[in-house]
From TrEMBL:
Residues 1-20 form the signal peptide. Keywords: Signal. Residues 7-157 form the Outer membrane protein beta-barrel domain. This is Outer membrane protein beta-barrel domain-containing protein. Pfam families: OMP_b-brl.
Length: 167
C-alpha cells in the first residue's frame, strides 16, 4: 500500500510542475484514444493528430463499436467500423489560453461500415458522414492529457472522451 501512495505523490508532483505547450506545434503529432458516446453501443477509438500550422491540425481516426439489438422479438448483433479524417483550428493563441489547455473546433469526414447479422430485417446502412466537432484537452504533463469532444453526424453521434499522448 505504501508503494501506491508513493506513486500517487510522485504523479501529483510531476503534474504540478510540468505543463505542455499547446496547441500542437507544427510538425509534431499526438495520439488520442478513448470511448465515444452513442445511442447504439459504446464506440472505442484511436486517432492521430498532426500540426500543420501553429493553430491548425489535421488528423485521422479509426473507431469500432459492437452491440446487440432486439427487433421483432429476435436478437441481432451489429458492428460498426469507422474511419475519418479531420481538421481543427486551435484557439489558444487567439484567446491567450494557458498552455495546459487546448480548445479547438473543426470539421470531419468519414466512412463507416455497418455489419449486421445476415437475417437482420432493419435498415442500417454503411455510408459517408460529414460532421463538425468542438473539444478541449487538459495536459497534466508535457506528454499526457485528457480530452473531451462533442460533435455530430459521424461515427460517434454525440461525443467522445479519453487520453492524449504527445509523441
Amino acid at each position: 500500500m505504501r508503494n501506491v501512495y508513493l506513486t500517487l505523490i510522485l504523479l501529483i508532483a510531476a503534474t504540478a510542475t510540468s505543463f505542455a505547450q499547446n496547441p500542437l506545434p507544427k510538425g509534431d503529432a499526438q495520439l488520442n484514444m478513448g470511448v465515444g458516446l452513442s445511442n447504439r453501443g459504446i464506440p472505442v477509438y484511436i486517432g492521430l493528430d498532426y500540426g500543420i500550422h501553429k493553430d491548425i491540425t489535421i488528423g485521422a481516426e479509426l473507431s469500432y463499436r459492437g452491440y446487440n439489438d432486439r427487433f421483432n422479438n429476435s436478437r441481432y448483433k451489429h458492428s460498426i467500423i469507422g474511419f475519418s479524417g479531420n481538421a481543427n483550428y486551435h484557439f489558444n493563441h487567439v484567446l491567450k489560453i494557458p498552455t495546459e489547455w487546448d480548445f479547438y473546433a473543426g470539421l470531419n469526414i468519414g466512412f463507416y461500415h455497418w455489419n449486421s447479422d445476415e437475417n437482420y430485417p432493419g435498415d442500417f446502412n454503411s455510408g459517408v458522414g460529414i460532421g463538425a466537432q468542438v473539444g478541449g484537452r487538459y495536459f497534466f504533463t508535457d506528454h499526457f492529457g485528457i480530452n473531451l469532444e462533442f460533435g455530430g453526424n459521424n461515427a460517434f453521434s454525440g461525443g467522445k472522451f479519453g487520453i492524449t499522448l504527445k509523441l
